[in-house]
Amino acid sequence: MKKTIKVVAAIIENDENEILCALRSSQMSLPNMWEFPGGKVEKDEDIFQAIKREINEELGCQVTGETLFHENIYEYDTFKVHLLCITCKITEGIPLQTEHAKLIWLKRENLDSLRWAPADLPAVEKLINESSLFL
CA-CA distance, 77 to 70, in Å (whole number)? Predict the structure, then answer.
């Protein structure tokens, strides 16, 4: 039986209605694929605590998790990911590229131009088909 890893991912939209996209580095699993930034939920942490901690660690800025935007389970070859995508607002600082190879802001209609990690694809499709998160 494959281990299931619970992971949170931040969907951050800026004032120009662009979504933050992060390119996984060549040293990470799923190298050179795009994802929404985030990471594993630790024991005794809820998803909103996890997203706040992960974004601070990965991007060096503070966010507030707002709502659960999308949830799915994706089965890779050796493990399963239970991915919880959370809409977030930046409350302090700006996202800095520390762990990822690149960070970019893209309009939602252009999100499908990137090579996304498979677990992130359902949320990408939902974003493309919906209007702004924060109207």
Answer: 22
Question: Helix (H) and strand (E) counts for the chain?
Answer: 2, 7
Q: Cα–chain-centroid distance for residue 19? A: 10
What domains can be seen in the chain, in order of their start residue? 3-129 (3.90.79.10)
CA dihedral 130, 84, 22, 29 (to 10 degrees): -140
Which sign does the torsion angle of CA 41, 6, 46, 11 carry? Answer: positive
CA angle (11, 30, 131) in 5-degree steps: 25
pLDDT values of the chain reduced to their tens digit, one per residue, 135 residues: 789 999 999 999 999 999 999 999 888 788 899 999 999 999 999 999 999 999 999 999 999 999 999 999 999 988 999 999 999 999 999 999 998 999 999 999 999 999 999 999 999 999 998 865 544
